Amino acid sequence: MRIGELARLTGVNQRLLRYYEEQDLLHPLRRASGYRDYDDADVERVRRIRTLLAAGLNTTTIADVLPCTIDTDDGLAGACPALLGDLRREHARISASITELHTARTMLAAIIDATPHEAPENDSGRPSDEGERPSESNR
DNA sequence: ATTCTAACA
DNA sequence: TGTTAGTA
């Protein structure tokens, strides 16, 4: 498939897909026309890239990790013991990050619950859609 | 109509 | 990362 379809399938801008290639995250073949030619597996690959990027990993690390993963029946499997150090380091960093997020969420929830609700005159006719505040759901 | 490269009011 | 210009 060409870049347009991959962009549509993944929701990632073509500009970004080209950037990922520049960062060695994707290696599409080139057609005689010069157009990039992606394979079906690239759809999943882009999703993984997005996930790792969102988790805070830099492109160089992702570029090292992706080629060292093997798709198994259920999920993924590692294949490069040399990367174990980096992997554990990232895993620890993310864990620390999650802990910070938890405290931040708890803090905001406390502030929200202690905040008096405003009572504006809703004469616009439209139904009032006051957003619900987090009610301490997860974990 | 699509994609490509390069560049930035 | 977005957007755009000028091509192929």
Report on the structure:
With 139 residues, the chain is mainly alpha-helical. It has 2 domains: 1-79, Multidrug-efflux Transporter Regulator, Chain: A, Domain 2, CATH 1.10.1660; 81-115. Helix content is 49%, strand content 7%. It has 5 helices and 4 strands, in the order ααββααββα. The chain has helices at 3-10, 14-22, 41-54, 59-65, 84-113, and strands spanning 29-30, 36-37, 69-71, 76-78. A two-stranded antiparallel sheet has the order 1-2. Strands 3-4 form a two-stranded antiparallel sheet. A hairpin with a 5-residue loop joins strand 1 (29-30) and strand 2. The protein is flat. The protein starts with a helix and ends in a 26-residue tail after the last helix. The relative contact order is 0.08. The model has no long low-confidence stretch (mean pLDDT 89). It binds a DNA duplex (9 and 8 nucleotides) through residues 2-4, 13-16, 18-19, 33-36.
